Amino acid sequence: MMDRYLLRYFLAVIDAGNFSRAAAQCNVSQPTLSVGIAKLERQAGQPLFHRTNRRVELTAAGARFATHARRIEAEFALAEHVVREAVPRTTLRLGVLVTIPAGWIETFVTRLGDTPGRLPIEIVEGRERDLIEQLSRGRIDVALTLVRAESDRFAAEPLFEEGYALALPASHPLAGRHTIAAGELADNVMIVRRQCELLSDTSRHFTARGVRPFFAARTLSDERAIGYVRSGLGVTVMPACFRDPGIVRPRLADFAFTRTIGLLYGAHVDRTALRGGATLTALADEVRAARRGG
Amino acid sequence: MMDRYLLRYFLAVIDAGNFSRAAAQCNVSQPTLSVGIAKLERQAGQPLFHRTNRRVELTAAGARFATHARRIEAEFALAEHVVREAVPRTTLRLGVLVTIPAGWIETFVTRLGDTPGRLPIEIVEGRERDLIEQLSRGRIDVALTLVRAESDRFAAEPLFEEGYALALPASHPLAGRHTIAAGELADNVMIVRRQCELLSDTSRHFTARGVRPFFAARTLSDERAIGYVRSGLGVTVMPACFRDPGIVRPRLADFAFTRTIGLLYGAHVDRTALRGGATLTALADEVRAARRGG
DNA sequence: GCATATCATAGGCCGTGTCTATGATGGACC
DNA sequence: GGTCCATCATAGACACGGCCTATGATATGC
Predict the structure, then answer these.
(1) Distance between CA B8 and CA A62 in Å, rounded?
(2) Which CATH class is domain A92-160+259-293?
(3) A268 to chain B: which residues are within 8 Å by CB?
(4) Which residues of A touch B45 (CB under 8 A)?
(5) pLDDT tens sequence across B236-267
(6) CB of A234 within 8 Å of any CB in chain B?
(7) What are the sequence ranges of the domains in chain B?
(8) B96 beta partners
(9) Can you name one GO molecular function term for this protein (chains A, B) (predicted)?
(10) Do B2 and A268 touch (CB under 8 A)?
């Protein structure tokens, strides 16, 4: 496995023009450097230098390799430098729970263009556990996701709390009702939102009440689920925040689950610095506004 | 000095999520990986992971470092790959002797745009010895420079031979003459072309004939030298190929030096492949045409 | 409170990168 | 043509350090 010190030998030979000077430059003896280059060539599978007496010249393979070797060394130097100095992040990596309406994020991103002091943004979608994992890996900086009382692993900023509700087509016989019991939906075809954080609870709720529906669709997208509902394919249960002209959202009786949506901050980020930039403030405002007005 | 294996440990921890799984992934024991990370952190000057029991999370420094670590690993993989496979060069790196008229190269580059099968080109200027060094280092592929009989280090393709001549302003008293002896220029102010491959020979030629002129300018650019001559600042000696409306080029008596201009091919390049592409053919044609017509 | 998971520490083994010493080869120079 | 000097390659010894097993410290979960 090609090691770094071999690259330094290699580059030194290129720069110095011969093995002896290269060895001196690397603070090793000439034989050491010689076996090093030999080892590198063995690993490369072919000679990297043409040894004529009096001087060495790169072979074609050596010339190709040199470009990458230099880049690697430069990147090492940069890495060693950057790990010490606190360079501010240039992009905000935002995780977004899949069960948050896509429209909110679209609006947020659209309006972000006008926000002064905004950061370039990078969005990563995922389920709750995906986002938590990405957050702990340092792959994202902030997650717009569920905030749970028991999750104290990350600094949390709750934005709103909401319940879950049925989603029926506007033409559904029960569309005018305010609250509907599970039993009343016994004959209804249903749609499974596979990404839902409450999937098993919902399933349990119905089976416990003797309702074992046929599932007309299993989807990972809430937008498609809404489309199916609107078209009359079936009904489903979704977070209350999802609204659409073609569907109604009556309560499901005795289904008291709620969720709190908010921001979770990765352990590696400077939270105040992120809030200082207007980006996250804009996101929080947008989410709250969408929740109220949606 | 941060070694490659430490980077692999580091990245494995990020990917695996904890030290034990990372160690397994690297085929080392957990303690080995543990001391490896500790070593890396000591070299980095600060912790890269937040160790809470149950899991590890990247620190801010760790997150910054991770980007570069991944890039380095990717580049290593690429280097190992590229050194084996013969990927054709995508650019032709051309060295050009500084004492070759800039206009030739400009015309060549301009016309190259129309040449089918051309390679993107990258030009490196330098004196003869600079180009030879770059060529042997594999930094350039071909050099348009002096071809000497005794230089058999590189494959050579001569294009033309020429002498050297005086350069006088068109208004100079001796401008009409075909040949001028050094002694006739005793009172003339001269211009030193510092980059000239024949500088010392020229100087010797004059001093040997008792001419010790005042030097009005020392320049590294032939175009500026011509400008000085044209403006009447002084006279100089240049390769015969330099022409300009404002100057005349009489011979310098008993100055029999000539030079052969041609292409030198780096040891690392596949010469036939390069000629196969139309780029070098175009260059050779252009140089010969400029020489004839110039 | 025991079982289980985590990462850290200690001490010894051994691979390998390093050294010095020497050889092989090919100009340069008289 | 023989000597000198430069080049890179090879051989054998040393020792640093990366690796192991064994054990400890600490927190979580049933």
Answers:
(1) 25
(2) alpha beta
(3) 50, 57-60, 62-63
(4) 83-84
(5) 999 999 998 989 999 999 999 999 999 988 87
(6) no
(7) 4-82, 92-160+259-293, 163-257
(8) B125, B144
(9) DNA binding
(10) no
